[in-house]
Design brief:
Length: 201
């Protein structure tokens, strides 16, 4: 079986797996308070890139990869800057987050799953009541990314850095390989980035 065939199969499976949801679990008061503080932080005052050169290189490369899915350049760059900031802020690889978004919503801002998960990162509404504020809009770009990245980091902390298990929790499919494998495949094949490499053509 060719690697290309396996990858295509994983993406097909991912469409079905993405219908899963984060499951409600009671949180300790200290964890709830920490997650609330993480969500409540305001819009970033500065760039998350270490230098202007890094910003130009990363944005140019990722923008070319995303162009077919998000044709409007201004919207695309705003999206990518927000992904980079929110992922970096949460201690996540921005390319991993892009891979997760590809599997979860196919980069559709207003995606809603059959279970009610919303937006780019398919965040379940119960999180707003649990750690957010009543008026938080999960279809808002930065709000959705902030919730999604905070939740994934929370699951990584619970699983002591085990990405396979953390992704399973994120999708509500803990213990099954389809979803974690699909996200990893998307991350590694579509969004892998090597700093200093010429942008993808």
């Amino acid at each position: 079986m060719s690697r290309a065939f396996v990858f295509c199969l994983l993406l097909l499976v991912a469409d079905k797996a993405a219908a899963g949801t984060q499951k409600y679990e009671p949180l300790a008061a200290s964890v709830q308070a920490a997650l609330h503080a993480a969500i409540a932080d305001r819009k970033p005052p500065t760039s998350s890139f270490r230098s202007p050169v890094e910003a130009v290189n990363w944005l140019e490369d990722m923008s070319k990869r995303l162009a077919k899915r998000m044709p409007n350049q201004e919207q695309r760059l705003e999206f990518l800057r927000a992904v980079h900031y929110e992922a970096t802020r949460a201690g996540l690889d921005p390319q991993l987050v892009l891979g997760l978004i590809q599997v979860e919503s196919g980069f559709k801002k207003y995606a809603v799953s059959s279970a009610g998960a919303r937006g780019y990162m398919q965040v379940m509404p119960f999180w707003v009541k649990l750690i957010g504020s009543r008026n938080d809009n999960l279809f808002h770009l930065r709000m959705n990314l902030r919730y999604g990245c905070t939740i994934l980091k929370h699951y990584l902390d619970i699983e002591k850095g085990d990405l396979f298990r953390a992704l399973g929790r994120y999708n509500g499919s803990l213990g099954r390989a389809e979803y974690p494998d699909a996200v990893r495949a998307s991350w590694e094949r579509q969004w892998h980035y090597v700093p200093g490499r010429a942008p993808s053509r």
